Amino acid sequence: xxxxxxxxxxxxxxxxxxxxxxxxxxxxxxxxxxxxxxxxxxxxxxxxxxxxxxxxxxxxxxxxxxxxxxxxxxxxxxxxxxxxxxxxxxxxxxxxxxxxxxxxxxxxxxxxxxxxxxxxxxxxxxxxxxxxxxxxxxxxxxxxxxxxxxxxxxxxxxxxxxxxxxxxxxxxxxxxxxxxxxxxxxxxxxxxxxxxxxxxxxxxxxxxxxxxxxxxxxxxxxxxxxxxxxxxxxxxxxxxxxxxxxxxxxxxxxxxxxxxxxxxxxxxxxxxxxxxxxxxxxxxxxxxxxxxxxxxxxxxxxxxxxxxxxxxxxxxxxxxxxxxxxxxxxxxxxxxxxxxxxxxxxxxxxxxxxxxxxxxxxxxxxxxxxxxxxxxxxxx
Length: 380
Description:
Shape: elongated
Strand content: over 45%
CATH topology of the largest domain: Porin
Mean pLDDT: 85
Helix content: 10-25%
CATH architecture of the largest domain: Beta Barrel
CATH superfamily of the largest domain: Porin
Largest sheet: 16 strands, antiparallel, barrel
Structural class: alpha+beta
Distance between the termini: 47 Å
Number of strands: 17
Number of helices: 5
Number of domains: 2
CATH class of the largest domain: Mainly Beta
């Protein structure tokens, strides 16, 4: 009850007690005046207590900057890959027909220097080198969020998905081929249209190096992505659908070692995606991509196409998830018989909130073979 309601009720009592009809029937004027004075004194005491409580109540404060925090995870794999030669001994990648691999050691530092800003730095110390993964500033601007720096290209849902939560050991071939580094340097703005889709606009300049494996000098590009929630009356949000379009220029060295032949190629791409994730039941996600990528020295730009479908089901009240995936990718639609195809089945076991185990079987064509992967992951 607020203090003004208390004051109002007390005022009504005072008025009632001071009424002439009641006074005439119950008490003398002197007694009535004394009672009114007592009630006024009581009201004053209550008002003083309320004011003291208001003064002692904590005052709202502006959100303070959050301290620097550290996160990450470690992934170890055992692989048996029949697509590798029986005597494979690749010292550059550490790949062999059967081996243990320290796949990822991620170090993720985050801080909020001010309430509406986020700074993130992520590095990967595994395989051959220590690589920069993320280094960006995210700021709330108007009705949206502005991201500036080195970050994941917000185009494919599978590219945006963290490696720490992905079911299958690797992304689909269409993702790894078109976005081998997954990240780029640039700026992106994401905002929500009222009663409409979420919109992302991006401009990228490229890393201007060969370390990301996708461009020697630049990969200037722009993109637009629309994400629409899928809502059903009475059932809430069941998933989302998205449409993306990007275009730009990439550069590649088509020459032999010591004989550079650097040329431009077109990076035009279109994506359609769908995610269905009801509260109960299986989760399904699919993405279809049509566009262009680097080809050969004779034809620097090649028309490409690829897609994948992923189905997963978490057993009720159990730490087990079953998943299946199919993906294919055509690196040059003008050539016949070169489409990559892969089917995968797997089981995930969430030992606890920090530890996860995955066992995956894959069968693929171009090249033909089977791959068994057992992966352990520890978060910190």
